[in-house]
Write a structure and sequence with these properties.
232 residues, alpha/beta, Cytochrome Bc1 Complex, Chain D, domain 2, 2 domains, two-stranded parallel sheet, elongated
């Protein structure tokens, strides 16, 4: 029996710690399945232009371990500054790629990143022009970043701003020297309208892991575990 190995004080301390862990699991589950569905992103407006909130699946508390992000209001963007690659846009896209994509797709886009080792299907090799699920044109890559690919580990990156997603799309295309195909004029016109007609709100995002860590730390500070008594 466990009481043969632990003193009553040590057993009490162990049970207290276990209750703390169970309590935080319950809190995380409560937030994830009860509170969060009602905390959907809200639309905001700017005085001179409509602003559309980025839509997510779980609200501000995100189960994916993305970096925490502060709320940001972005006005409409001149399409000419994002639909054609330029040095500033490419530099931004490379920074975003290194932070969000290289782990699985590899630094050179060959699908050989350490994070993709156990994935099935394997991460896309951007240097090869075959078997792309949504296609290789600019609008196709942007769509993949916006929606993700069902049945794969490629999730939606709509938590990024539209400009960052477009910068990332240009970088993804630049990793392959093959012909990516001519864009559909209607699709490009739709993208131009998307960037020019409405701004967006990037809401605050807090990964569940960080939220649980914060709650655990705050709870430990307000409910310290008493030290174990010295056995006599």
């Amino acid at each position: 029996m466990i009481d043969q190995y632990l003193s009553p004080a040590e057993l009490k301390r162990l049970l207290t710690a276990l209750m703390v862990v169970i309590g935080f699991i319950f809190i995380a589950a409560f937030f994830g399945f009860t509170v969060l569905p009602g905390l959907r992103y809200q639309a905001h407006t700017l005085p001179d232009a409509p602003v559309q909130a980025v839509q997510g699946e779980t609200g501000w508390l995100d189960p994916t371990d993305y970096p925490a992000m502060a709320r940001e209001v972005i006005p409409p963007i001149d399409p000419r500054t994002v639909l054609t690659p330029n040095p500033a846009l490419m530099a931004r896209g490379k920074a975003v790629y290194a932070q969000t994509c290289a782990t699985c797709h590899g630094p050179d886009g060959k699908g050989d990143g350490p994070g993709g080792t156990g994935l099935n299907p394997k991460p896309r090799n951007f240097t090869q022009g075959t078997a792309w699920k949504n296609g290789t044109r600019l609008e196709d890559v942007y769509r993949t970043l916006d929606e993700g690919i069902k049945g794969s580990s490629m999730v939606s990156y709509n938590y990024l701003s539209k400009k960052d997603r477009m910068a990332l799309a240009h970088v993804v295309q630049s990793l392959g020297t093959f012909e990516h195909g001519a864009s559909d004029p209607k699709a490009i016109a739709a993208l131009e309208k998307l960037f020019a007609s409405a701004g967006e709100v990037i809401p605050t995002r807090i990964p569940v892991g960080r939220a649980v860590d914060t709650l655990t730390r705050e709870y430990a500070q307000t409910h310290p575990v008493p030290p174990a008594s010295t056995p006599r």
